[in-house]
Amino acid sequence: xxxxxxxxxxxxxxxxxxxxxxxxxxxxxxxxxxxxxxxxxxxxxxxxxxxxxxxxxxxxxxxxxxxxxxxxxxxxxxxxxxxxxxxxxxxxxxxxxxxxxxxxxxxxxxxxxxxxxxxxxxxxxxxxxxxxxxxxxxxxxxxxxxxxxxxxxxxxxxxxxxxxxxxxxxx
Length: 171
Description:
Layout: H1 4-14, E1 21-24, H2 33-49, E2 55-59, H3 64-70, H4 72-75, E3 80-82, E4 105-106, H5 109-115, E5 130-135, E6 138-143, H6 149-159
Parallel strand pairs: 1-2, 2-3
Antiparallel strand pairs: 3-4, 5-6
Helix pairs in contact: 1-2
């Protein structure tokens, strides 16, 4: 649990050198509509108040039609969404998608400007990118790894005597 104001303050500190987007992923963001709405409104206020042009990309395991029916107001605060559940048995999806059933859907003018070129982009286009950040005694890995990458990282760390704890990819 974290207060929205504290989360946005962390985003501001993390993005002090500039950022081009904020990504919201799971668990399932839309299972907490009040909290998600508060976060999206706070991000929009930050963006408008500071004259920034970052986009908000959100991942959801729900079908797009379900999100449109249940959470239309929240979708108006998101620039692009990757809906549908990740399916391990399907081939890798396009850019920024884990499985082939997941579309990339721009929802705003900003989203269309940023993401239209990637809607049909192959998974390898632009390559997979991972970032690592260190904060408060923790290492955070951010991005979309290729299948097997996180297991390989964990095995390599274990072979050197380093145990990974509190890993999100096994939750």
